[in-house]
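Cont'd.
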Amino acid sequence: MTDDNLDPTSLDPEEMLDGMNPEDLDGHTIDELSDYLDAGREPRNESIENSPGARIALDALARLRNESWAMLEVEALADPDRDQSWIKNVLTNISRESRAGRDIPISHPDPAVRLNITEGSVRGLIRVAADGIGGSIIGKVALDGDVTVPGEAISLDVTASATYGQNLKSLSQLIREKIAAELAIHTELNVVAINVTIQDVHPEPTEETP
Amino acid sequence: MGARSSNFLNTAPDGILAARAADRDVAAFEVLVHRHGPLMRAYAAKVLGVASEADDVVQDVFIQAWDQLDRLSDVTAVKSWLMRMVSNRSIERIRRRKDLVNVDDWDAPVAANLTPEHVVEVKLQMNALATAVDRLPEMQRQCWALKEIGGVPYAEIAEQLGVPVSTVRGQLARARRTIIQEMEAWR
Amino acid sequence: MTYDLDLSRTLTALVASTAGVTEVYPSAPLVRSVVVNLVAAATEEDTSDAKIFIDRDAAGALTVTATIGVDAGYPVPATLRAVGDAVRAHFLNHEPWEKSPVVDVRVSHINADV
């Protein structure tokens, strides 16, 4: 490679890669560089990293890969689900049975009367209640501890995403309080901790249907 | 469940949607289907070369995903997990095809009537890369799509297709060279 | 079997009319419900309104199993107790010959439509 006009970012990746021989790449092959790229350039290969030709080819390969993904994204966009039948087939074929989980007992003075709430229904209750606060969307709801034993110490792990601009600390607190209130009304669980992790942020919902 | 306005979940992050879908929230699952389905279809079509087969693969993947989402340890990685399932099912289909038995046969250029019909949309004909890929011989295109898009390791492609790793590498090298040359010609 | 089918119907209606109950789901384990349906089909009985599962052990002692959906507008424990009490009261008042039936009620869905 000559030095004049050597601005790698100005040339198309294809121009960079076409006609590159091992002597341009200080003895390396395109195949070898592609593998190195796949491995995230780890462990560091000094011979490749010290070769300007090889480095330029690596950048070009990376850009070509990005172009490949971009090309696929464009195809995906250009293919609106005008034919929604495959989506309908998916939705009609999935089982709607909820995951019941463990039985959470409710006390009754008569031992011949056994009352339970399924864990799944409690998770659903929590999700709807916390979603209703506004400003967040609940993700995972998990009850830790043996919920089948009355009085057992139970903790909750909840994940959520918040809309932009929220005070995350007060939002977590609101969620925690709402969940605690719901559980107090509808269960007899001994809840010792409610861990709310706001793991993400998201924009306000858009108008159009998905 | 989650019955606020119907677009309440539209902008929810993948990880949140996957966690809800794992607990049988159909609305959340539906958003995932709309969000990732088109890309999965485009990828499957690249591997398989036939749009209707791509539809079948993606449908099967989502039906399977619904049942297995609760076993996904990192819900934020649901997109790559779905794409991986598309890779697996697409490769399965290739294996089951009776017409592909000989590497030499694979190498012949794709006949015009096998070109995926969705590529024929005028807008996409302008996309040199898409065109270049779709004009590759069948096996080169499959190897290229599985490796470059799906990230499937060489050894796995080789094992599934029943050919040596060196064959897969060779196919990929030729595909890359062809793509590069065709795109240059376009410019 | 016919007697228990009627009992199931009666109890299903009773439970469904309890305040706070939004839905009564079929309670039988799958295999049993297939058998019930086969027998019902043989006798041309409609069993869709008999959702409460009636089980008798070898000594004839009864277990009654109900699976319900409830309204979050009422505390769930209150609704559960109301159902349990209603079923127990039914036996005390109308079928006192049934010795200590076990009443098993499970909430599988809590409706909290915003």
